[in-house]
Amino acid sequence: MSKAVLVFTALVLSSLLGLSGVGAEDPYLFFEWNVSYGTISPLGVPMRAILINGQFPGPNINCSSNNNIVINVFNNLEEPFLFSWNGIQQRKNSWQDGTAGTNCPIQPGKNYTYHYQVKDQIGSFYYFPSLGMHKAVGGYGGLRINSRLLIPVPFDPPADDYTVLIGDWYNKDHKVLSRTLDMGRSIGQPAGVIINGKSGKDAAGNNDAPMFVMEAGKVYRYRICNTGMKVSVNFRIQRHLMKLVEMDGSHTMQNIYDSIDVHVAQCYSFLVTADQAPGDYYLVASSRFLRKELTATAIVRYAGSSTPPSSTLPKAPAGWAWSFNQWRSFRWNLTASAARPNPQGSYHYGSINITRTIKLVSTTANVDGKTRYAFNGVSHVDTETPLKLVEYYGINEQFFKYNIMADEPPAGKPPVTVSTNVISIEFRTFVEIIFENPEKNVQSYHLNGYSFFAVG
Ligand SMILES: *[C@@H]1O[C@H](CO)[C@@H](O)[C@H](O)[C@H]1NC(C)=O
Ligand SMILES: *[C@@H]1O[C@H](CO)[C@@H](O)[C@H](O)[C@H]1NC(C)=O
Ligand SMILES: *[C@@H]1O[C@H](CO)[C@@H](O)[C@H](O)[C@H]1NC(C)=O
Ligand SMILES: *[C@@H]1O[C@H](CO)[C@@H](O)[C@H](O)[C@H]1NC(C)=O
Ligand SMILES: *[C@@H]1O[C@H](CO)[C@@H](O)[C@H](O)[C@H]1NC(C)=O
Asked: Model's pTM, two decimal places?
């Protein structure tokens, strides 16, 4: 279901554990963020949301590979808070990744300064709050890593670069959602879908002002992330085709799509050519795999035009198979940007020998009245002191045992164990991880702080 309620920590031993500093020679970007509650009405219903410097979505982080990012976060909520930088590979700073397994939460009324260096995952990401159900009420924003000069990107610079954060929205306070799970119930269906914090219409049904502008004939990059809790969202632009160029920090083969399914936490970059008659066009985001389709719109306007958009929205695809088949069409462009050796030191990705296969089967169970999600029969609980700190100080024996979960699911249906669940993996192991979800809800998995490419 949602990665906010399902925590799985894979710790790569040895290489990631050093607390070395960041390179002094690379440029620094400084941010000061004030995290506070505020009232917003994305679906017309006023509710308490988490804002950053008064904004929802939060500010975009626009950086280039090797930049040092310094973000001083002031927590003005009445509860602990943490930001996660969603998979940004922090070779030297993995203990800063902002999950309860790596960082101490920022206490209410206190501040904490994140300090990390982005490397060569050139592409599109987003940051989000990682504790409780905070993510369901905001606190997220876009994060882009540009290629530093000298490292070519496999397309010409676009005329502009737009961040489009889409996802489900519940119209419920995050504490209400937490209590629902703690009473053994599901958070239920979302109230709607939003695009950059908006549904696209006001209470009278009139369109919001255009969100983006394109000049006829030019090419634009759209970075689309599903920042929601659990619902897959199909994204499309009226009368425009989308050329896929990047997903989650990897450049891809440049296939053309008329719509794309974006599952929770995924990000894609598309190039869109403004090749239609000047006018306004709808961007459409609609829920997938729900009984009732929920739709949000936004408008992209051709500069200087005043032709309203056609009220006929392009339809979403139907069924599961479409989504699987689309996924199978995605291919990594392994020659783009820079050749990188695989973990065994070779440049031939296709010939890496898999040294370990971990099969993770997810289940949901009611344990002591609470809804718990489990892998291979184990539902993770955080240690009071973050795992990375416990390991750094060599006191892990007092807190948890490694590898209590097997690489294979248990036979039969034994009861779910609630425990700190840490897999240790040796340096340079090339691991194949297979996820299996026998249940009725879509599951999404957050492989935190490492670079992955889904292969099937
Ligand atoms: C942060 O925002 C809150 C609520 O808007 C405000 O009361 C507080 O003064 C702000 N703090 C800083 C450091 O800007
Ligand atoms: C983002 O950074 C790139 C590279 O430094 C720069 O060219 C671009 O103008 C920046 N975009 C925004 C919106 O700040
Ligand atoms: C908190 O903010 C102050 C003022 O900007 C700064 O000097 C201090 O280093 C910050 N503390 C932490 C723990 O980041
Ligand atoms: C893959 O990347 C290389 C190197 O940048 C580029 O020349 C090539 O056109 C790209 N291939 C596709 C299909 O995009
Ligand atoms: C993979 O295993 C085969 C057979 O054992 C071996 O010949 C080959 O060198 C290995 N490849 C790598 C990259 O280690």
From this structure: 0.90
